[in-house]
From TrEMBL:
InterPro entries listed in its UniProt record: CheC-like_sf, Flag_FliM, FliN-like_C, SpoA-like_sf
Gene3D superfamilies for this protein: CheC-like, SpoA-like
Keyword hit for Protein biosynthesis: no
Main subcellular location of this protein, as a coarse class: other
Flagellar motor switch protein FliN-like C-terminal domain mapped to chain residues: 255-325
Family assignment from sequence similarity: Belongs to the FliM family.
Top-level taxon of the source organism: Bacteria
UniProt cross-references to CDD domains, sorted A to Z: FliM
Keywords per UniProt: Bacterial flagellum, Cell membrane, Cell projection, Chemotaxis, Cilium, Flagellar rotation, Flagellum, Membrane
Location(s) in or outside the cell: Bacterial flagellum basal body; Cell membrane
Membrane topology value: Peripheral membrane protein
Protein name per UniProt: Flagellar motor switch protein FliM
């Protein structure tokens, strides 16, 4: 046990307090004998380290970006989703924190055991439904009176959204999310015991002018087999393995070689005023900034890469590469 070292001034002050009676030596001995107790709530057991919580946060930041892209395409509207918080709480506390009537989707994630819960605030869910049905994304709440058609549309929308979870989790484990249950009353869902620790990832969600929360509830039993992978050490090792994998490098190289690029040779450019542009007539001449004796620049996806000279090959316009442009080099006529 580490001992605290007092300065000379502190020792003098302590002796002075004892001699004047301001401090009792017996009370000091009594305090030393008393055991220091830290309060621990067994109903709120912390079963995940801060390192593991940070790893889960990183995974679901990627998931939030994937959801943003997915819902933007599906709803054709402004969508912004970001991670607000990642907490570990008892399951009972999570159920009490969400609305009494809300949109609940229960998913299994084989090969992992247990189920995860996706809770969507009604404001967000109905804004999505309104957009899918051709509306402007108006938000209103009538969870108690969901029709069969509305239930089916919502189920399909969120079931496809969870396919992005497979990609987000791929760095840790390969899962195959499957929708098992659609519910609106949290009291009818009892995935785990009330005191079971769950991780709750809250996502800030904005769709058009509507905003709300999407909560992902993951019980400890689901994450237990992959807890060793939720560490910075594992992530670093995994990243180094990926970087040094020759097969993966070869596959990426082959894919890059097949990518198409746009190549364009620029004869020259000119700047004119709008007034001059409006007065242009047939047979007017616009003088370019490029000399006829100077080589042309060949652009690859709008980036200058080569100096070339024009010509013909088999009666088709072509250019011959003269030299490579290094570090944004520009020709002397500019």
């Amino acid at each position: 046990m580490a001992e605290e070292v007092l300065s000379q001034n502190e020792i003098d002050a302590l002796l002075s307090a004892l001699s004047t009676g301001e401090m009792d030596a017996d009370e000091l001995k009594k305090e030393e004998k008393e055991k220091k107790v830290r309060v621990y709530d067994f109903k709120r057991a912390l079963r995940f380290s801060k390192d593991q919580i940070r790893s889960l946060s990183r995974v679901h930041e990627n998931f939030a970006r994937l959801l943003t892209t997915y819902f933007s395409g599906q709803l054709r509207n402004y969508v912004q989703i970001s991670v607000a918080s990642v907490d570990q709480v008892p399951y009972e506390e999570f159920i009490r924190s969400i609305p009494k009537m809300t949109i609940l989707n229960t998913f299994s994630v084989p090969p992992l055991d247990g189920r995860i819960l996706l809770e969507i605030n009604p404001n967000i869910a109905y804004a999505m439904l309104d957009r899918v049905l051709g509306g402007r994304g108006a938000s209103y709440n009538k969870v108690e009176n969901l029709t069969e058609i509305e239930t089916t549309i919502m189920s399909q929308l969120f079931e496809k959204a969870l396919e992005n979870l497979q990609e987000a989790w791929s760095s840790i484990v390969d899962v195959d999310p499957m929708l098992e249950e659609f519910e609106v009353n949290p009291q009818f869902l009892q995935m785990v015991s009330p005191n079971e620790t769950v991780v709750v990832i809250s996502l800030n969600t904005t769709i058009g002018e509507s905003s709300g929360m999407i909560n992902i509830c993951i019980p400890h039993v689901v994450l237990e087999p992959i807890i060793p992978k939720l560490s910075v050490h594992y992530w670093m090792q995994n990243q180094q393995h990926k970087e040094s994998d020759p097969e993966e490098f070869k596959a990426i190289s082959q894919s890059i070689r097949q990518a198409e690029l746009e190549a364009s040779a620029v004869l020259g450019e000119a700047d004119i005023a709008i007034e001059e542009f409006l007065r242009l007539q047939k047979e007017d001449v616009i003088q370019l900034d490029q000399s006829i004796q100077s080589p042309l620049r060949l652009f690859i996806d709008e980036e200058p890469k080569f100096l070339v000279q024009p010509g013909k090959v088999n009666r088709k316009m072509a250019v011959q590469i003269l030299e490579e442009i290094q570090g944004g080099e520009r020709n002397d006529d500019e």
